[in-house]
Structures are given as structure tokens and as C-alpha cells.
Amino acid sequence: MTEDVIQAEGLTRRFGDFTAVDAISLSVARGEIFGFLGANGAGKTTAMRMFCGLLKPSAGKARVAGYDVWTETEAIKRSIGYMSQRFSLYDDLSVVENIRFYAGIYGLGRAEVRERGDRMLEELGLTAERKALVRSLPPGWKQRLAFSVAILHEPGIVFLDEPTGGVDPITRREFWKMIYRAADRGITVFVTTHYMDEAEYCDRVSIMVDGRIEALDTPAGLKREHDTDSINEVFLRLARQARRTE
Amino acid sequence: MDAITIRDVSKAYAAGKARTEALRGVSLDVADGELFGLIGPDGAGKTSLFRILTTLLLPDAGHASVNGLDVVKDYRRLRTQLGYMPGRFSLYTDLTVEENLAFFASIFDTDMRENLHLVQDIYTQIEPFRRFRAGNLSGGMKQKLALCCALIHRPRTLFLDEPTTGVDAVSRKEFWEMLKRLKAQGLTIVVSTPYMDEASLCDRVALIQQGRILRVDTPEGVRRGYGRRVMAVKGPGMLRTLERLEGVDGVVDAYPFGERVHAVVAVDPDRIVWPEELEAVEVTPDIEDCFISLMKESHD
Fold it and tell me: What is the ipTM of this complex?
């Protein structure tokens, strides 16, 4: 079954005279891990905000989880999960309070929250820490918890905005194993990262430059096309053509 | 001569009943003019060490000196010789680029115009925005301004706490090129980073974890000291490949590495019976392989 969970065509967003996102087109299949790369200021965040139903486009079309980004933004918000390094869990709430809070926002019932929450804590090995404040958890645990919370309501797609900044190489890999397992269950993963080795973990990646998608292929395909064995090199070549400063 | 000497430095923080040992007896020397990398994850103690060396935090035990000046006793004199760029953006967001520079120059009793040539190279890139408030700059520009402010009083030693975290690959590369030029001017630079590829750009690196230094060496020395062989394995998808490698005799560890899985082997790879559909080729261990193994050993 290949159905597209994200479809965008000519999606554009302007702020005054500035075109942050310039007619991008892409489609992401169910269960795919899609890497959304680009230099700071290339327009990734603006595009991501449109996909999440948080920002109206200026032109173009896009559907996310089957809903229209122009008219069905509330339905989109209910069907997606979101996590970023900057914004994820509340430090001054406990583990279980965070779970209840997010599950509540996504409309899970009390019994469901308890059941899924307990199972999740068990899988993460965090049952003993359920009452601990999130602030007191090591960064790696926090990150894995944040990801689990973001997909607790079993969304069709989860958006991860630089989820792995600042963690050690072991924790980063543990985190990617969770991503693989989620994708294996059919959750589509849309991820931005500055770690180029992580770009290689994706099924396909796009590279955005000055608001446009300049490349979109499998990591192996991109390397072949640019005749290099490093995705970093492909990225540097494309991103250096940028004209606009961030 | 050593620019920085650290001997048995410890630091713990107490919050209520909880006690966090940020540094547990750290000893380290950094040579004059060295570009030295402090590599470790969040919470390893990097920032505590930086704050002690920059005289902003008192150690609980141990001694440290920078350019022969004690970080506790000689803190006033030492401060005029240090440049520090904290991990969190710490400039005044409601002052303009120019005002920030003038401010930092003036608290060191120096004049911004007089010293601008020291940072000309970097300043040129932010000059078009000199009348912008710092808070309105993009991430990359903020980073360049912060570096200018840390250099405006002509320090001998520069401390950079994760200057490239969250920065894209292009800006990261540019930033390291700037560091190389500063090093060529004779500055001693201590820089922390969670990016393993940046470790190989340093003269020497220290791997820090849970408040302890696990290893200090040149990047090449770290690689040479790695006693195991690494196979790059390709199979039917990352998850399936990892699953199939579990329990294979002779494979002591397996983890994703770029488009392949790295399998660390403890025996002659030819003697390993690879599961079906897996294709394994030996590769030269990357510095990241070395760090992964050092970190896991120290956990055990």
C-alpha cells in the first residue's frame, strides 16, 4: 500500500517581498523516513509550519494526512505529532504529567492515557521515574521520552525539527532506532537535521536552498548524481549556491 | 609552555537533596597556541569546566591556571586575557551590533575602533547589519557577532562553548576556517562540540563524559589507539540489518553509521558467519567509532 501522506505542489509562502518558500513540490509515502535538509534560513521552518497547519500558504497546494493545508488545519493538527529540540516537554512537570498533558491535548481518554502511558514508560524503562520532574532526566532520556509522547496518539505522521542536537553519538543512534521502529509501524517521519550522517539514515532527502527544493532523492542517488561518497559534500555544494543571507 | 593547566578539579551542584557531580577530578594541560577540543555530550561537564577556567565559577577542589594565572586568586588579571563565548547567546539583544561591540570593548578599557582590525575578517561579514539589534540577527550572524565580542579586547586564550550546535553544515565549515585563522595568529583556543567530525579538526582532543576525562590525544592518536576492527554492513534496511546482527558470534557491537551499519568485531572478520542478505566490508575506524567504544567502556 503506497499512499502519500504529504503531497505538496507549488507550495509558496511570502512575507512581504520576501519569498521564504518558493513553489516547492514533494510527496512523502506512508511509513517513509524523509529528511528535510537545508541551511539555516533556507525556508525549512516556514515549510514545516505550513505542513503542520500553523501557517497559511501564499500560493500552491498541499495535503497532509489527507487534509488540506488551506482549509483543514485543525484536522491536520490532530493527525500529526511534533517534536523539536527547542520545544518538547515541560521541564517543571513530571514525566507522567507531561504524558497526561499531551495526551489530553490530542483528545485521548483517561483509560487510554493510562494504558498507553504505562506501556510506553515500560518500553522506555522509565517506570520508576514516572513522578520525577522532566528537568531531572538526562538529555538522552528526555529526548526519547519526548519522541514517544509525540507519537502517543499514533499519528499518521510525525514532524521532528532538529530532534538530536547536543547529544552523544550513542544516544543519537538509540534515538534513530526509535525512529526506525516508528516508521516500521507505518508512522511517516519527516525530519530536519544538521547531522549529515543522519541524512543517510533517511529513505529519501530533499535539500532546500533559498526557498526552493534543489535536490530530492535517496541519499545513494544524490551521492551518485554528484559523484561523491559523502552527503555532506552534496549538501555543501548545493547550499553554497545560496544567494540570500539567512 | 602550557597555556592551561588543570589539576584534580571537581565541582558538584546541590539542589535540595539531589547532588550532581559535574566534574570529578579533572586534570588536563593545553599547550600554548593549541586548538584543543573538548568532546562530550550534554551534561558531561564541559560548561562547568569552561566556567571555572573563565573565572566565573569556583571549583570545589583542585587548581587551574591559564597563562600562568590562577583562576581563583588572579581572576581580575586573568579576565583581561580571556575571551569567552558561552553556549547560550549572551549578548544584549536590545543593543545593536555596533553597540554590543562598543560595550564589550569598553568594559575591557579598550576602544572598539582601535581593535576592530583584530576581528576585521569576521566583522566584515556582519558589518552590513551593524545598525541591527542583536536580537534580530539570524543564528549564524549572532554567532559571528558573539565571536567578535569575545575577541575585541585581544585575548590570548579563547574559550568557545559549543559554538556550532544547531548551526548548519555550511556555517560550521566557515566557523572552523575562522578558528584556524585565529590559531595562526597565535591564540590558544579551547572549543567544545558534540560533533565528532569537528574533533578531527583539533590539534588534540579530550573526551569528557560524566565529569571525567576518558582520553586525551591527537585525533590520529585516538584512531590508532582503537584496538578493534570495524565492518561496514549493508542489508535489507537498517532495522532488519541491526536485528540480524544481534547474537552473531564475534560481533561485539553494531550501530547505524551513515548508510551502513558498523559492526565492531572481536575476531578475524573472515571467521565470522554473516547472516543471509548481509554484505560486510572492512573499513578504517572513524573517530566516532573510537568515541562510541570509549563511551560504552566507561559506562560498563
Answer: 0.82
pLDDT above 80: residue B166: no
What pLDDT score was predicted for residue A246? Answer: 54
B-chain CB neighbours of A233 within 8 Å are none
Structural domains of chain B in order of their starting residue, each with its CATH number:
2-223 (3.40.50.300), 227-284 (3.30.70)
The answer to the question of residue A123 being in a domain is: no
- Tens-digit pLDDT profile for residues B31-43: 999 999 999 887 8
Residues paired with A82 in a beta bridge: A159
> Any chain A CB within 8 A of the CB of B258?
yes
**Which amino acid, B229?**
R
Average pLDDT over residues B186-212: 93
Tens-digit pLDDT profile for residues B69-101: 999 999 999 999 999 999 888 899 999 999 999
In angstroms, the CA B249 to CA B272 distance is 7
Domain membership of residue A35 (yes or no) is: yes
CATH code assigned at A214 = 3.40.50.300
Size of interface A-B (CB pairs under 8 A): 95
DSSP chain B: -EEEEEEEEEEEEEETTEEEEEEEEEEEEEETT-EEEEE--TTSSHHHHHHHHTTSS--SEEEEEETTEETTTTHHHHHTTEEEE-SS--S-TTSBHHHHHHHHHHHTT--HHHHGGGGHHHHHHHGGGTTSBGGGS-HHHHHHHHHHHHHTT--SEEEESSTTTT--HHHHHHHHHHHHHHHHTT-EEEEEES-HHHHTTSSEEEEEETTEEEEEE-HHHHHHT--SEEEEEE-SSHHHHHHHHTT-TTEEEEEEETTEEEEEESS-GGG--PPTT-EEEEEPPPHHHHHHHHHHHHH-
Per-residue pLDDT of A164-205, as tens digits, reads: 876 788 888 999 999 999 999 999 999 998 888 899 999 999
A194 vs B8 pLDDT, higher one: B8
Query: What is the total residue count of chain B?
Result: 300
* Min distance A59 CA to chain B CA atoms (Å): 26
Whole domain around residue A9: which residue ranges?
4-89+138-147+156-239
State how far the Cα of B20 lies from the Cα of B12, in Å rounded to an integer: 5
Q: pLDDT tens, A123-152? A: 999 999 999 999 888 888 888 999 999 999
Stated pTM of the model: 0.86
Query: Which chain A residue's Cα is nearest to B129?
Result: A245
Q: Closest-CA residue in chain B for A182?
A: B239
Q: Do A196 and B169 touch (CB under 8 A)?
A: yes
C-beta atoms of A169 and B292 within 8 A: yes
What is the DSSP pairing of strand B279-283 with strand B229-234? antiparallel
Question: Do the domain assignments include residue A68?
Answer: yes
**Residue A107, in any domain of the structure:** no
How many domains is chain A built from? 1
